[in-house]
Write a structure and sequence with these properties.
Order of helices and strands: HHHHEEHHHHHHHEHEEHHEEHH
Helix content: 40-55%
Low-confidence stretches: 1-5, 246-251
Mean pLDDT: 77
Largest sheet: 3 strands, antiparallel
Distance between the termini: 87 Å
Radius of gyration: 29 Å
Length: 402
């Protein structure tokens, strides 16, 4: 009768397996799980056991469409009818088996290397009160249904990285990388560096952030509609219906749609010619799609940006359409759209309204009419000149009025 191999049997692993890196690591994975799994690791630069154990799912990257991945993607799996990518079962089982072996080996090493006695633990707890706080946190965290999952990941990343002597060996989970990119985009370079330098080991450096942004397949291309990505996005939430809106601006069309990357050149003379001859785009047109969840789903998915492009056209016809549909001092002579009050409704978000008010207030050539009174930039200047008011009161700077 053939002998069975236990998941926890580490006899197949070399003694120094946790220290393997680069080509040595790839030779090991090839001997254990085959060339195909090794190729999946190589294309993602997962070149050590440490990085391997820090990666939650090595196949997650293949959910994205990329020309670099297409060849390998066709080898390891297939696209199902619902648009999702399925990894071949045999390859997935090989990955899970290797993961369990290496994790078991890592846990054994940690247990053997830990020389902390009860007395030493008591001394450390008295000396470092933060350890006791962390113990209390993790004890309660297990009963909160992963409410603080990201916070736990953040703390674990810092402690693991700071235990390493070489900063080049710092590693970050995919969720933490996504958080870092969001922080960089929303806060800017200065804010990101301020947080990173004051929380050592918590966030990747700027070089890594720039690489993540450049290699992201979700980057927008001017004038290019992302219908395929939108379909995958809606499928990920299990929704079939959505509504699309644009920001009240028209655009010149070529064959019925905007021409992607129309103004793209490496020639300075060509750029100068465009600057001299072509009308500048003063408006950015954004098309957004909102997924409509099923009745049993209480949380609506976030908006999806379908396309964006510059335009110099005004929005008069869109405003006219809104006026006609809303009955705001306008009506259609041959069709009554308000025969049923429930057929049409308009909802304008507060941010949109306030932005238009702000643009009108800061215009040097226009005045905001409120009843029989006018608000101009002179009134804003009076707010700035008032010594009893600070910026927190009005949110203005002198440069806003220039």
């Amino acid at each position: 009768m053939a002998a069975t191999v236990s998941i926890d049997d580490n006899s197949r692993l070399p003694e120094n397996v946790l220290e393997l890196e680069g080509d040595d690591f790839y030779r090991f994975t090839k001997s254990m799980s085959g060339a195909l799994l090794t190729e999946v690791l190589e294309i993602q630069d997962i070149d050590s056991v440490f990085i391997f154990l820090q990666t939650s799912d090595i196949f997650e990257i293949f959910q994205h469409d990329s020309t670099i991945l297409r060849g390998l993607k066709s080898k390891i799996g297939f696209d199902s009818n619902d648009g999702t990518f399925q990894v071949k079962l045999g390859l997935k089982l090989q990955y899970e088996y290797l993961s369990k072996l290496l994790k078991s080996k890592s846990d054994q090493k940690y247990t053997k290397s830990s020389s902390l006695t009860s007395e030493k633990i008591d001394i450390l707890l008295r000396k470092h009160s933060i350890l006791l706080s962390l113990l209390n946190f993790y004890e309660n965290e297990s009963t909160t249904n992963d409410q603080h999952e990201f916070l736990s990941l953040f703390i674990n990343t810092i402690t693991k990285n700071l235990s390493l002597s070489n900063t080049s060996r710092y590693r970050y989970d995919d969720k933490l990388k996504s958080f870092a990119v969001c922080l960089y985009i929303l806060g800017g370079k200065t804010t990101y560096e301020f947080v990173r330098l004051n929380l050592p080991g918590s966030l990747p450096n700027l070089t890594t952030i720039h690489s993540l942004i450049q290699n992201n397949d979700d980057n927008l291309t001017e004038g290019k509609f992302r219908f395929n990505k939108m379909a995958k996005y809606l499928n990920s939430f299990g929704v079939q219906y959505a509504y699309c809106a644009e920001d009240c601006f028209s655009t010149p069309l070529s064959g019925g749609v905007p021409s992607p990357c129309h103004f793209k050149t490496d020639s300075i003379s060509q750029l100068k010619l465009w600057m001299d001859k072509n009308e500048k785009a003063s408006i950015l047109n954004i098309h957004c799609v909102q997924a409509i969840p099923p009745p049993n789903q209480t949380v609506a998915p976030p908006n999806f940006v379908l396309a964006g492009y510059g335009t110099s056209n005004a929005d008069n016809k869109y405003f006219r359409a809104m006026r006609l549909m809303s009955g705001f001092y306008a009506s259609l002579s041959n069709f009554d759209v308000h025969v049923d009050s429930s057929m049409f409704s308009i909802q304008t978000d507060a941010t949109h309204l306030v932005t238009k008010l702000r643009n009108r207030l800061l215009s040097a050539t226009a005045a905001l009419q409120v009843g029989d009174k006018c608000i101009t930039m002179k009134h804003l200047q009076q707010l700035l000149d008032n010594e009893e008011m600070i910026r927190l009161d009005h949110g203005l700077t002198q440069s806003d009025l220039k």
